[in-house]
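Protein record

Derive tokens from sequence
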Amino acid sequence: MSDSHPESDPGHEGEPSGPKVYDRRRIDPDTYEVREPQDAAPAPGGPTGTSTTDSQTGEAPVADKDSRVTELETALAERTADLQRLQAEYVNYKRRVDRDRDVSRKTGEESVLKDLLAVLDDIRSAGEHGELTGAFKAVGDEVVRISGKHGLVAFGEKGDPFDPHVHEALLHSLSPDVSGPTCVEILQPGYRVGERVLRPARVAVAEPDGSSPEPAGEAGVDPAETPVGGPSPSEQA
């Protein structure tokens, strides 16, 4: 008995032995036309039914492209609106922080300057009594200079009209030399920082006393009743 198999027998009639050659050229060499792939398998994980892409160009249909573009434009508009809102919130936050920082700084300066008012009063009183000399004068001048550097301004002059918003009347008198409430003496100057009054000026106020000079002519005699051209005939008789 022979153990040879039919496929290994060179003389066996059937399928030809040897390597098989497949023509996978896309262009037909005889007709020069594009061949359709016969053994194209679906991509792994792809749909098993009708493909949603064009087999020739590999592009999605026009409807799907337009839908995708619309979705991207909508997402872009939403992200742009979010960025604009965040930017506006940041600008408002920065402006509020700067304003609060400025208010805190001014409040701190005013608190320190208020504590210095008593020192400035002592320096002023010493200068009026001639005791501001030597090293003490140098220190006093430096305190006044630094307080002025931070915006502290003294106000209140003799002869200023009395203003209850910036003056505090400690003394009151009547005087014929004034036509209205007037500051005739500054007991303590006032201080302000910008438009804010830290301390009103403490003053002595004088008001008109209401007196007026007597009219010309003799007292108790009405000039209209004095005869013109001498005494009347009845007075001569």
Summary: The chain is about 35% helix and 15% strand. The longest helix spans residues 62-128. Residues 185 and 222 are 42 Å apart (CA to CA).
